[in-house]
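Quick review question:
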């Protein structure tokens, strides 16, 4: 009976969490179209998120390109299909590996940062002070950050994909004596709009999920300073799970429309 009650309580808390997150999302869309618009804060968040994540995304993308090519090359050599390396690497990275890895990195880098920042503002009563002073803290703190992650993540994914393909080209240049011009010609010959457009579209949802969950956890932080760490940690966990769900839905829908 005790175990059954714990399961019921956990399920009830899960439903409450879904309901609160849904209300939080609906409030975002309501506040988004109500003036005034915090453009200055929005651009500041875009700069901070993009600039501070660029090096990490670049290094990760470069290593992905190197490792993926080094691991795939021996298998392709066994079947005499090394010439397929540029198309295989580019399609794999652009369709799936690049977006999801970059999104997970940003979930850990940006999502946790948002959760910790807003959580610390909540427990130190800075958000309450903004409400008392007549400022709309939701519009200033939440809307700008969600919009910034939604806009910046596709740019970071695009940059990370380019660096990953460049890393792959370096391996092929050293091991297979393939020129960079020939490699990138084969890359662009193999890519189609059905590879790029659905992937780019889903990265906006990745960015929205990262910003939404991070802001939700931080904005509703409780239990004092201990809750700040909990908010940052749960923001990464929940966002990672949500990213895989969004990715599955995106792949499923893409297969329906593009066969």
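Suggested answer, residue by residue:
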């Amino acid at each position: 009976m005790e175990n059954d009650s714990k399961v019921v309580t956990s399920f009830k808390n899960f439903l409450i969490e879904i309901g609160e997150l849904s209300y939080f999302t609906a409030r975002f869309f309501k506040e988004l179209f109500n003036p005034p618009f915090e453009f200055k804060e929005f651009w500041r968040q875009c700069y901070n998120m993009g600039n501070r994540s660029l090096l990490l995304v670049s290094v990760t993308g470069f290593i992905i390109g190197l490792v993926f090519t080094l691991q795939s090359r021996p298998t392709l050599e066994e079947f005499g299909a090394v010439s397929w390396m540029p198309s295989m690497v580019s399609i794999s990275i652009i369709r799936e590996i690049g977006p999801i890895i970059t999104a997970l990195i940003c979930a850990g880098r940006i999502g946790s940062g948002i959760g910790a920042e807003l959580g610390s503002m909540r427990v130190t009563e800075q958000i309450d002070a903004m409400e008392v002073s007549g400022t709309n803290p939701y519009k200033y703190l939440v809307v700008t950050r969600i919009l910034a992650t939604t806009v910046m993540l596709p740019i970071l994914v695009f940059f990370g994909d380019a660096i990953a393909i460049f890393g792959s080209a370096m391996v092929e240049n050293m091991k297979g004596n393939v020129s960079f011009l020939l490699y990138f010609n084969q890359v662009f010959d193999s890519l189609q709009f059905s590879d790029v457009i659905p992937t780019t579209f889903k990265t906006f949802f990745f960015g929205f999920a990262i910003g939404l969950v991070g802001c939700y956890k931080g904005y509703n932080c409780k239990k004092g300073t201990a809750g700040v760490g909990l908010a940052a940690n749960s923001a990464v966990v929940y966002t990672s799970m949500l990213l895989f769900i969004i990715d599955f839905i995106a792949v499923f829908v893409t297969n329906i429309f593009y066969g």
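Why it works: The helical segments are 2-32, 39-78, 85-123, 126-132, 137-175, 180-190, 193-219, 226-258. The CA atoms of residues 127 and 186 lie 53 Å apart.
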